[in-house]
């Protein structure tokens, strides 16, 4: 945000109170000066004027955009969560192929996944199931929910594909399991500490 950009709300608001006599003088002075149609008679508020807490003022005055780094971390974290959920791009592509071969009712699948309100966005695309599954993945939809939806529609091949992918992921995660150090080395007999000898 540009901290010096003024909005259209004037800083000083004139009111029709008891001080009407005092306000006539500045209006006459303003009328005698040449008026620029592009320039407001009074300046507007800036973000710094509206910032009440010091934290917001510090953010507006800082030169480095810390918020964009924070947002990119969130995006990266959500994409990592989606990858960790077992629905990677390869699995998604294979599942789309399965749904295409079985001529799956993708609108019913969208309903089962709780995404029926978005079907109008997908229906004009060449592969509606792909867009549906991509949005399900980006929304952080659990693979278990997808398995249940496919199972309820009788799409056994899709269920089999996802379960095989889960098994492979489980196998990879146990192979890459790092021992914390306890039990990885033989424990030496320790002599009990004797107090006050």
TrEMBL record:
Residue spans of biased composition, Acidic residues class: 17-26, 187-197
GO biological process: signal transduction
UniProt biased composition (Basic residues): 67-76
Basic and acidic residues: compositionally biased ranges: 164-178
Region (Disordered), start-end ranges: 1-87, 164-197
Lineage top rank: taxon: Eukaryota
Annotated Death domain residues: 81-166
Protein name: Nuclear factor NF-kappa-B p100 subunit
């Amino acid at each position: 945000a540009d901290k010096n950009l003024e909005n259209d709300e004037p800083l000083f608001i004139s009111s029709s109170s008891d001080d009407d006599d005092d306000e006539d003088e500045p209006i006459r002075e303003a009328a005698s000066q040449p008026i620029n149609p592009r320039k407001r008679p009074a300046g507007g508020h800036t973000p710094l004027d509206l910032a009440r807490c010091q934290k917001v003022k510090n953010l507006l005055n800082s030169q480095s955009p810390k918020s964009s780094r924070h947002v990119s971390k969130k995006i990266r974290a959500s994409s990592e969560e989606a990858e960790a959920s077992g629905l990677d791009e390869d699995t998604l592509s294979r599942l789309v192929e399965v749904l295409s071969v079985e001529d799956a009712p993708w609108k019913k699948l969208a309903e089962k996944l709780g995404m029926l309100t978005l079907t109008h966005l997908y229906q004009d695309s060449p592969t509606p199931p792909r867009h549906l599954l991509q949005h399900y993945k980006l929304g952080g939809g659990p693979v278990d929910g997808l398995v249940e939806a496919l199972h309820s529609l009788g799409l056994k091949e899709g269920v089999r594909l996802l379960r095989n992918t889960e098994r492979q992921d489980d196998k990879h995660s146990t192979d890459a399991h790092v021992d914390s150090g306890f039990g990885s080395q033989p424990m030496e007999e320790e002599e009990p500490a004797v107090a006050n000898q």
